[in-house]
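Sample entry follows:

_____
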Amino acid sequence: MVMRTSRSLIKATRSSPMFLLDTMSWTIYFQVLAIVASTPVLSALVAPNALDLKLTATLSHEIPSTLYGYMWEDINHSGDGGLYGELLQNRAFQAVIPGTQNALNAWQPYSGARLAVTAKTDGVSSSLPNSLEVKIPKVVTGPIGFVNTGYWGIKIQEGWTYKGSLYAKSDTFTGVITVSLKSVAGATYASATLEGVSSEWNKFTFEFEPSKSAANDNNVFTVTVDGAEAAGATIYFAMFSLFPPTFRGRENGMRLDLAEAMAATRPSIWRFPGGNNLEGASIDTRWKWNETIGRLEDRPGRTADWSYSNTDGLGLLEYLNWAEDLEAEPILGIWDGIAIANYSNFDTWPIVPEEDLQPYIDDALNEIEFIVGDPETSYWGQLRASLGRTDPYYLRYIEIGNEDQFQPESYAGYRWSAFVNAIEERYPGQFEFIATSYPSTELNPPYLKIDYHMYADPTWFTTHAFMFDDYPRNGTKYFVGEYAVTSTNPDEFLGSIADGRLAYPTIQGAAAEAAFMTGMERNADVVFASAYAPSLQHIKGYQWTPDILTFDASRIVKSTSYYVQQMFSTNRGTHVLETVPSSTNATAPLFWVASYNNETEVVYLKVANTGTTGLVAYITYDFTTTGLGTATTLSTPSLSPISDVFNTSNTLGNPELIIPVESSFAIPETNRFNYSFPATSITVIALQTVIE
């Protein structure tokens, strides 16, 4: 994902979207693509005209199991404050400057305590040198201490058990510490007392079981002592943590509602850890895998790429476990020698010279060995086993870098080959490598898979729905690793909201994405994977719009784009079915793909209508069905205030304006039925059948 670092961010146009190809190596194919891109859509289907569509029994090619999934990086507080279940923001004062006000982000004094972040006393570990210094005035009575405001609030739910911990020490106080969940108005929902403070760091654990649910998120975590008992004392605190119940009960795990929403799309790939957040804003602040494993006390965190610090509580093992929980294949991004800087001046980007690259190659090899190494014979495999995971993880895909089209000379000159050759030498034939340069960039060894990113307006996506039809069938395959309709402005895909940038995905944008997805699925012999991006957005702390899921401390909203991803991913065929006619520009604004699942014996017909009127299709088929069909449709509700209002979005304030509607229908005539596809809609039809 491109990050805005100056107001003169590279502009993309309809014929050259962000991260689209500039010069082309497959001359014939890309000349055809250029013609298609500049040709207006020929909308032969205009109401009341109808489409005669035949679903044949001819299987075209297999659909890879990896076709739909997620791209991940910690942006918009999607990790810390989002999917990662931790409720306390700035819990260990990582990547901050002691003594500054910014170091106290999310912490506030209570009843007059004086707070400062300090490194003048020994930290709880060498990785966490900072702690919270709390000075109690000499004259004070009643409870006094401090609060943490969470990630813009804390959800308090009756029936949940919250598990917490903190470190404390003091040379001048040995009394009782009280920890609580409270509303900002002072109502107490749960509390616990901690005893045993001494001059050495001690870890205290506790649990909360709220007596009732809070009415809203305006709640805080409080830590207090008795003022009379603690008067004049200085107490140090460090490494706080508070977790609600997590997905599948994993320790240090994922927030329930967000995890359940992501799992409900049944993704089959998980690309991580980025994205820009892999690269770092400097070489030293890159994502370092070995600093994200082990005890939380041994993870220093980092100054990340999207304007906030990362705790790295969501680290390499957590990512791999999460991929397994999703039953998704991991696509591991390997840092490959560049950090990002000013996008308007690529000369500012730090690049590791070829002669200095070997330590970083060794680091990548160690990371891979940690993931797949034998737990008995491999040092890194033994380390993984000591952290609770004996069996090696499954890993097939390794992506070399991220968006290396921005530094093509060094990528083609030595970085790609250095990493690929070293990994292949160590693990011959074990991995498949994904390049991140332009397809036109010649690499040695030649790439067989390449990651392609696109952010654009709806028209770009509908126009390019057929771009893969003429892609060379030469063994090279695409990973559409990031894509989304981001704007209604064809001249400024990544501009401001005032310039057409979308705050939330719209039904118009979702239909255009679905049209493009029919092209990816129809050409799944060359498109092996795809991922909408970004995944998540905290509404009170974000850097990018639109996003597939938006949330705050207690609520989430599933966007129209989310529902499209879910509809396409959960209704998967194993093979593409040929149709007559095929979906082409001439049949716009209807776009479709048919598939057959040879395990469930179901035929799927996925249709996007990007037009502003409903269209009828007369559908025939060459196989036997049960005489019943089911349909799932996403569109603006009929006879409602938003009927035919296509810039409509689901929002946190109104999360179910547009949701999928399921229906069943009888097929009274053998091998034929009519179906009306609403204006600007996405529909998935399922027919139970057997194809001989």
